[in-house]
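Lab manual, section 2.4: Encoding a predicted structure.

Procedure: take the sequence of the chain (548 residues), apply the prediction step described in section 2.3, and record the output as structure tokens. A sample record is shown.
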Amino acid sequence: MQFQLTDSLEKVFPDKHPRIWTEKSASLFQNEQYSFQIAYQHVGTEDSFVQLQAETDAVAITLSHVKNVPSDLPAYPDRHDDNYLSIEPGLYPDLLEPIRENKIKLQAGGWNAIWIDVQPKQQVSGEQLIKIKLLDEKGQCLYEDAVNIFVYPYELPKQKLIHTEWFHGDCLADYYQVEVFSEKHWEILENFIQAAGENGVNMLLTPIFTPPLDTEVGGERTTIQLVQMEYQNGKYIFDFSLLKRWLEICERHHIKYLEMAHLFTQWGAEFTPKIIVKEDGKLTKKFGWHVKADSEEYQEFLQAFLPELTSFLKENWEVDKVYFHISDEPGEAQLSMYAKAKEMVIPYLTEFSIVDALSDYDFYEKGVVAKPIVASNHIQPFIEHQVPGLWTYYCCSQNIDVSNRFMAMPSARNRIIATQLFKYDIEGFLQWGFNFYNSQFSKKAINPYEITDAGKAFPSGDAFLVYPGENGKAYPSIRLRVFYQALQDLRAFNWLATLSGKETVLSKIEKQGEITFSVYPKDGRYLFTLREEVNQAIIESLKYEQIK
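Recorded output:
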């Protein structure tokens, strides 16, 4: 057996000797999450069990086994750059499977890894030595080492970035085979919302009715509709009790912002979402692909629904923290229909923000979308025109030059985004797949442990950040952990900017040259060095403030 420490930005593949983490030290703040790995190579024909001991009193430690998952589509063959670890189908390290009772089954053959998350407890400060030992089944020491963590006696400021990873509650009902909004489903929903909130997601896509996202024209996803509706004697009656329960869960788990499911279908707003209404004692699909967006019937529905929905939201949430969507990713050909759909709902949403993924600057200039969410590879014109309050997103199409988090990409390419979000004062970040466990267009449910690319549709890592674990728990991925640590970087950058000015932070970020969304250092060591410099500058600034 062979063991060594490696850092959190190294992806350990069976056939490649991992990078050695020589520093074995880091500085961080109270309650900040930090990660590293024990890489191991077990040459043999049978798996072996070992016991891991991590001695520390003041630092919370979580252990996970890094598991390789299959990818048939790690990258688009005709759309990629050189900054991928591989573009070949195969097994990629991604799943972080929880280790219980510190007992670990070492996998035989090639290199694998144990992932270690450390988090200093509140009120802890100073040097904290984490002693690590691996013992065999007879109690003999196989490996020991130590990591030195220096904890500054402060906490990072709260996250300013509005961050949403689209949450798919229907996929959870499908995977766990439970009835939508049964007590078991609510328990699973809360587990996954908690996981989102703990990892920097502070806005949640809310299924007032089944979100019209990634659904084949004419097809449908599993119904998940928080607002119960009846139509009697030409009048709609709405029940918001399930939505109330959803909001209570959000409040418990750091969700500060809500985004309502899109009011019209994706890619052009031409049709209505699937909406189930009880009529004559029976549940019927009153709206969907069979009803045009501008039909009188839907306009009548919106006239009844939106005033009552917004009234409920104003009573139960902060108005400036509720966002609405018209339609996702409209193209130039659908511009007039998008504008028409927007005009239908604007009178009822005057107190709320409307945001949509839309990347053509001409659309913004024409006033079609007041607050666009711009793809990171199309954002430059918006930056040049100094559009205020910019949001950005990436998905499968942002596959060349820009930051992203496909399994086949280096983790540094995931974490670098903090520098870009800071430099360009980005207000919000969106990604569409927190837990999308369907094939493309939601033609069928899939097992994300076996299919990680939505059926060879999107590069693995695009469709989900967490795995559905045992007992309805969300299991994290390497990509989730690394992106959260990018959000921590951003909080540190913002803190130093308030203490010493934005230019001070930029001078550190751009020490190796100008950074844009498509140009940035590729080496992960840059990110570790940058955080250490920013941490030190924060402490020096705080000392100076105290002296003053």
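Check your result against the sample. The mean pLDDT is 96.
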